[in-house]
Structure formats: structure tokens, C-alpha cells
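Review session, final week

We close the course with one last complete record, chosen because it touches almost every idea we covered. It is CoA-binding domain-containing protein, a protein from Terriglobus roseus with 122 residues. Go through it on your own first, then we will talk.
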Amino acid sequence: MAKTIAVVGLSDDPTKASHFVSAYMQRAGKKILPVNPAVTSVLGETSYASLSELPEKPDVVNVFRLPRAIPAIVDEMITLGLKALWVQQGIRNEEAARKAEAAGIHVVMDRCIMVEHRMRTR
């Protein structure tokens, strides 16, 4: 599994799924790169306004945004040469997934990265 995870839409509110899922992944040894222009830092990490501003290429881009935001994220991933997109449980955009896959991006959609990690590490 990935070592570095960019989390698009990571909230600094601990009651939000993006926050507690990312905190869990961080505790599991993953490096979290927050992507949220509305906050300066989350989980002790600097937050970036976009994927393009990240200081390193993440292994996975984990998305906590509405389905309508996913196409722009996919476009940015294609431009940056990023190879893995994870869209959290309850979020789907089939057109964006097809575009990502056509560009060679591995796509996981409508699944929780925390739940999957727990199942694989039992």
C-alpha cells in the first residue's frame, strides 16, 4: 500500500470523515499531504492549495470532495503524472474515473481507505 497520501478536501474539523480517516492513516505510518486551500495546516502537516503545490509526488490521491470536483482533480493528476486515485465511500463520478483510467491512473471509487487498510492489516 502507499506510503504517501495526498488528501484532497482534508478538513481540520476532527468530526469530519476526511480528518479521522486521515488521522488513522497517519497513525498507521502513512505520510499525509493535506490539500485544502481553506486551512494552513492539518494533523501537524502544512496544507497546500492544490496538488500542483505539493512538495513531493504522492503515491495516492485520496479525495473527500463532491463528485462534481473530481474531473478537475483528475485533470490535475494527469498533468502531474500521478498514478493512483482513491475516491472515498459514497462519492462517485464514473466519467472522471473513465478519463483517469484511460490516462493510466489506477482508480478506486466509493470505498473507504481506512476500512480497506483495516481489513488488510488484521
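Two points worth writing down before the exam:
The two ends are 14 Å apart (CA to CA).
The chain has a mean pLDDT of 96.
Good luck, everyone.
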